[in-house]
Design a protein that fits this description.
Largest sheet: 8 strands, mixed
Strand order of the largest sheet: 5-4-6-7-11-12-3-13
Helix content: 25-40%
Order of helices and strands: HEEHEHHEEHHEHEHEEEHEHEHEHHHH
Structural class: alpha+beta
Distance between the termini: 70 Å
Mean pLDDT: 91
Shape: globular
Low-confidence stretches: none
Number of strands: 13
Length: 392
């Protein structure tokens, strides 16, 4: 029987929920709005299958990089719609053209939640493009993936490292027709924090006015990405917008400030067991941060992907996509992308952040309380400014 004795031992992958033969495990929300498994002991037959598929208890085999590459989609439209270099959509297009199926994360229609789903056409791939900075609900994706694999269908499954690890343990065996793709993960924010932020936003804009949300809008370039909300034409009189779109630089957006400062991540993220290739994925994607220092001639500010290839079948698939890519040294690739190996540090004020939100405070106020410099820091800065003025 699955038992969570510490919240740092559960990644919320849902493998135990999907594997339970009696369907007696459900996910229950805690006071930080993360989901954890709860077992109905009256129905449980103590078969132990939930423990066997838990990737924290039984982690997949670590995969070392075969190669690391920078990659750019030659289709500028694809690239600008993507978070970085547009590799995912190119992989997906090849799989779809070969009668395969894609699994990935999409927003629900009201944008309050991100769920895992699947598609067999490119129209379904488009909502999967771009980063969604909150933990997705895996639904029944693992079980459906297994059925497709057994039919011999080519499957491309994308997700966080912990979701890929959950899929691997759920399947229990390798499939030659499965390509798993994860990404260099900063950590997964609480879905409830996003819903709270969205509700705060909707106090100004009616729900029906929102047509699209992008966490990685490149209107002002890849390096200066921001969060954008595209509004229905009926909302245009309510706000000053650029063609119906409200854009906020990522470091000024309150939700992104909480995320980028690690305040709202799942407890296990601060000691993630799936770093450094330990998810068992075939391919890892990421923004190639630092490309402007290593290969400035490549950086046109439209986005460049870092691709870490760990299996031959992933290498073969990448070569079939038509994406421009070039092999580089792995240590060079990870120089500016340490999150591949390292977990974020636990912020001292993380508990205060959630405490304030549980008391009904806004994310803006919680950020101000938890991210503002301390009194001693402010005093030191003020003294430094005074001394500077006196010496000039």
């Amino acid at each position: 029987m699955i038992k969570i004795d510490s919240k740092t031992h559960c990644c919320g992958c849902s493998a135990c929920v999907e594997r339970c033969p009696k369907k007696c495990i459900r996910l229950v929300e805690d006071n930080e709005w993360f989901m954890y498994p709860s077992v109905n002991q009256d129905l449980c037959i103590d078969c132990g299958l939930c423990d066997k598929v838990c990737p924290v208890i039984n982690p997949p085999q670590k995969r070392e990089p075969l190669s690391s590459q920078y990659a750019i989609n030659i289709n500028d439209t694809d690239r600008l719609m993507s978070s970085s270099g547009g590799v995912f959509v190119s992989l997906a297009r090849y799989v779809i053209n070969n009668e395969g199926i894609i699994f990935g994360a999409v927003f629900e229609s009201d944008f309050s939640k991100v769920i895992h789903t699947y598609t067999e056409d490119m129209d379904g791939v488009k909502p999967m493009m771009g980063s969604k900075y909150l933990q997705s609900d895996i639904n029944s994706a693992y079980e459906h993936c297994k059925k497709c694999l057994k039919k011999g269908q080519l499957v491309l499954f994308t997700g966080t490292p912990c979701q890929i690890a959950g899929l691997k343990t759920f399947l229990g065996t390798d499939y030659s027709n499965l390509i798993t793709v994860d990404f260099i993960c900063h950590g997964v924010p609480s879905p409830g924090i996003w819903e709270k932020y969205l509700n705060e936003y909707k106090n100004f804009f009616q729900q029906d006015f929102i047509q699209n949300i992008s966490f990685r809008d490149k209107t002002h370039g890849w390096h200066n990405y921001g969060v954008s909300v595209t509004l229905d034409s009926t909302a245009l009189s309510c706000a000053s917008t650029n063609k119906g779109k409200i854009f906020t630089p990522h470091r000024e957006n309150e939700y992104m400030r909480a995320f980028l400062n690690d305040l709202c991540l799942r407890p296990i993220c601060y000691e993630c067991p799936f770093k450094d290739g330990k998810s068992g994925s075939d391919l890892t994607l990421a923004d190639f941060w630092g490309i402007e220092n290593l290969y400035p001639e490549i950086d046109d500010d439209k986005g460049v992907s870092l691709v870490i290839v760990k299996t031959e079948k992933a290498s073969e698939l990448l070569n079939k996509t038509g994406v421009n890519h070039k092999a580089i040294k792995t240590e060079e690739a990870l120089r500016f992308n340490p999150a591949y190996m390292c977990s974020p540090a636990l912020p001292k004020k993380r508990n205060l952040f959630f405490k304030l939100l549980n008391k009904g405070k806004s994310i803006t106020i919680a950020n101000k309380k938890c991210l503002s410099p301390s009194i001693s820091t402010r005093i030191k800065k003020k003294i430094s400014n005074i001394l500077y003025k006196l010496s000039h």
